[in-house]
Amino acid sequence: MQEEVIELGIEAFVFLSYAVAAAGVSALGLFFEYRSYLFSNSGEMVLAVWLAGLGLIMFGFAALISRNKLLVAYSGLRSE
Predict the structure, then answer these.
(1) What's the mean pLDDT in 34-55?
(2) Considering the entire predicted model, what is its pTM?
(3) Which residues contact 47 (CB under 8 A, 6 or more apart)?
(4) Any residues with CB less than 8 A from the CB of 76 and at least 6 apart, and which?
(5) H or E stretch including 3?
(6) Which pLDDT belongs to residue 80?
(7) Exposed/middle/buried for 5, CB within 10 Å: 0-12, 13-18, 19+?
(8) What is the rounded average pLDDT of the residues 3-21?
(9) How far apart (Å, rounded) are the C-alpha atoms in residues 58 and 78?
(10) Is the pLDDT assigned to residue 3 strictly greater than 70?
C-alpha cells in the first residue's frame, strides 16, 4: 500500500514537472514574441524578425514537451 502511494507521488511529480517546464517555455516564447512586436514598432526590423523566430522555436519546444513528455507522463499517471 505504501509503495503504491510513493509510486503515484513520483508519477504525479514527474507530470507536474513537465507541465511547469512546458508552461515556462511557452511563457518564454510569448515574451520573445512580445519583444519582437515592440522592436518592430520601433523600426528595428532585423532584431524583431530574429526575436520572432526565437519565439516560434520556443513555442515549438513547448509543443514537443507537451506531446512527447507530458502526455506520456499523464498516461502513466492514469494507469496507476
Answers:
(1) 96
(2) 0.82
(3) 36, 39
(4) 11, 14, 15
(5) helix 2-42
(6) 64
(7) exposed
(8) 88
(9) 28
(10) yes
What backbone phi and psi angles, to 5 degrees, belong to 43? 100, 0
Distance CA 18, CA 70 (A): 6
Q: How far apart are CA 24 and CA 35, in angstroms?
A: 17
Instruction: Give the cell for residue 59.
Output: 513555442
For residue 60, what pLDDT is reported? 96
Percent of the chain residues topping a pLDDT of 70: 99
Distance CA 78, CA 59 (A): 26
The C-alpha cell of 23 is what? 508552461
Residue type, 63: A
Contacts with 80 (C-beta within 8 Å, 6 or more apart), sequence order: 4, 7, 8, 11
Query: What's the rounded Cα separation, in Å, for the pair 43 and 70?
Result: 39
- Give 8's contacts (C-beta < 8 A, 6+ positions apart): 77, 80
